[in-house]
Amino acid sequence: MRMASIECRSRVPNRPDTGRDRGAVVPCPHTGVRASTCLGVALILLLAAAVRFAGITDRELWLDESCTYYYVHHLFNWPADGPDPWLELTTVPYTVLLHAWTRVAGETILGLRSFSAVAGLLTVVALMYVAARVAGRRAGAIAGALAALHPLQVYYSQEARVYALWCLECTLLLWSLYQAARLQSPRWWVAYALLVVMTTATHYYTLFWLPASAVAVLLSPRALHFAKQWTVTHAVLGVVLLPFIMFIIVPLTGRGSQMWLEDVWASYPPALALLRSCWALLPAGGYPEAYLGPLAAATGVLGEAVGTWLTRLVQWGPAALILLLLLVWGIRKPVARMTAQSAQVSPASGRHVAFFALLTLATLATPFLYSWLVRPAYVVGRYDLCALPALLLTVTLLLDGALRNAGSRIAATAFLLLCSAATTVGLHAVPVQIETPERVRRLQEHVGPHDLVVSVGMYRWFLAYELNRQGFSTRIISFPPAHDRQVGWDNPRAELADPEGIKPAVTSTLTGIRRVLHDGARVWLLWQGDPTGPRWEVDSQLLAGLREAGYDVRGHDPWLGLLEVTVPATPREGRSEPRP
Q: What does pLDDT average to over the chain?
């Protein structure tokens, strides 16, 4: 009964907790819901929905999204000769939920991506709720507005991948940790543990979030008791998650599927990875960086200097403002004491900012140190998304608390929203891709039912959605053949490290071509890869093998990467059998 009375205790709207009772939960800001509050929430959600659903079907599925489609489409009807389903068990909750969603919404581009859009909207709602419970109605409005226009939030809400759901789960996980630290109630620790299992199964990089959760001791009224609860909870979680880690994560990372991370890690460079993550996660930070290109081009009509200036403003303006707010917040307490106004300074508000800020930094520092000391596992603006909810709440509390003047608070928030809107406009200004549907159309026009299509690299799965939708029935195989047993994993550098291993792949593909085709038939190569990259070096060995075996190879449509290979009626002398 006492706990219930504490939870329902009301307070003055928008006034932070005074911290006099460190054991009490954050009081409810209001005893009722005002009409103005409902209207504000509705407007924020309307804005969030508008930017997430606008142009959601303009772009075709890219490689990772085609993998999502394949696994969702075959989830409960896995083909006997299909890829290994165990390779994608790191996103089971997302795949199952999206499969159920597409039973109603359909497996169209809209059906696949709308699930992420709804998850993005729910993330906005969750952040508004958490901020309002922590600091009041005004903080909730700020958090909701920042999340509604956040470029990363918008981007992943328009992608048929796991990240929008993962960010929502991380927000709920953060709230359960906050409540467990404040109340030290068993039910909140149980909720926290269940959310950890769910979130880790959605994206296993949640494991990097778990050590950072120890900073919640800042909110605990009894630090020693909290430390014991935290240790016991995570010990139990370790036992529960151990099979998942040993039988799914360890084999997955050990088979070379993360070699591409080494190139990404080196491109930051590593010394700047943390700074680049902070920039990407801030309001208006944006990802990928190429989205700033259309913004510069759009503003170039006003002059090149203006375009460059606006681009730099979008890039660095929010970061500079956040640093300024951190400075103001840091000196506010000493200045208040000097002016004998220390009674107006809220210790609890300071603990909240310190908790969310340190949680953000610790969440980023854990994979950073792992990447530095063990192996690369850090991807700016993608795998660091588990830190985004804590960072947005940090910014919200700084805007709401550090800037006491209403005018400066409104101006700072408006500046961040303007920068976010500009970056989001740049996101929508990216030219629409037409490559995949055009390839499917050309295949339907030229490929006969007895021909064979060889998809180099991972392009077979990239085309899977369009091919299935158009009822394309011609046989397709992959090169190297091992790619027929996997979806979404492409490691050309690993293949190049074993040049002798590529020769059997070429021989196997040529033998398969000769076995299924009669003289005069055609083979079509769906080419993928940058001529300057390692993928091209692997795939070009197939072309060399075809020419060595006497096949006539010519570019039917070089722009689309469609090569026509004719099987000669009489192979060259001494070359009737394929050579390695």
A: 78
